[in-house]
Design brief:
5 strands; Rubrerythrin, domain 2; alpha+beta; single chain
Length: about 140
């Protein structure tokens, strides 16, 4: 379907109409089935109406929002696992990680806490396994 803005060449009256195709408009005009609603003239011209497009950006935004919510949910689940299974050491993470690593007699246990990027780099250079994970504070919980 195609929508045309029609204009009478005699009285300049403007109106809109739908057609199956451009060829169909031409066929109907030739058969004198298209006439001005105002003056009855068959001298009708057409111009293409602006298309009515589907807003794909909204769809993309909805998909991105959905993906963001899914990632956020997975992060929350991961955070719950970490909090349940590891010991929180706060800002002492680098110190505690070194203590566990170098004290061979001490029980090895998982910890989590805060560390600067510099601390994490130094720990890795010393052969101490560390990982950075995104941590979100969710006010909805």
């Amino acid at each position: 379907m195609i929508k045309y803005s029609l204009k009478c060449k005699d009285c300049l009256f403007e109106f809109d109409s739908w057609f199956i195709s451009s060829k169909e408009f031409d066929r109907l005009k030739k058969l004198k089935f298209i006439k001005c609603e105002e003056c009855g003239s068959f001298q009708i011209g057409k111009s293409l109406m602006s298309p009515n497009l589907v807003n794909t950006k909204k769809k993309e935004t909805d998909q991105n929002t959905s993906k963001f919510k899914e990632v956020k949910r997975k992060l929350r689940d991961y955070q719950k696992f970490v909090k349940k299974n590891l010991k929180y050491v706060g800002d002492n993470f680098a110190y505690e990680a070194r203590t566990i690593h170098y004290n061979k007699n001490k029980e090895k246990k998982g910890i989590y806490g805060n560390a600067s990027l510099k601390d994490v780099k130094e720990l890795k250079e010393e052969g101490i396994e560390t990982e950075l994970i995104p941590w979100i504070e969710d006010k909805d919980n």
